[in-house]
Amino acid sequence: MAVKDTLQYKLTKITTKTVLAAIVAVVMFFLAKDKPLVAVWFLPGAFLTIAGEWLRLWAAGHLRKNKQLTTTGPYSYVKNPLYIGTLLITLGYSAMAMNQWIMIAGFVWFFIYYAPYKKKQENEKLIGSFGDSWKVYDAAVPDYFPRFSAYPGKGTNRWSWDVVKENSEHETAVAVLAGLAVMIYLFFR
Q: What pTM value is reported for the model?
């Protein structure tokens, strides 16, 4: 197994999903480069992108993967804040690029394929790791539409930058912000 924070470890993080995300990003930049971007699309898109990454950073700072059931931060309101953040980022970039087809495709892909696939895959793993605690949490907290009040059984963990780094979300944030910088450049050129 590769040692964390080495190039070899980082290369193990390159998956079909990350390659596809990069391809979609390049396509969006390519589609946006030759047309004048308009504020009515760009500003809400930039807001969604920033909100999505903010949610991912908040969630990643609470997520103690494979160590304990995470029920603090955004996880006390919704089970999948990282996925919601990714969806918001995708929708935000699509709006900034004024490409409703990628926006619709991203939305459909998320709810028809990605969300059900991840639910099945992760549910089995979480039951195996956390048993009844997971079952109680799973029944009480919605997957994608947040509850209005915090989960009553939420833990006491606090957000931590070290945990964000453990989850490599700081690298995702850099990539998202670099993409946002490219879109801002295309908007103001």
A: 0.84
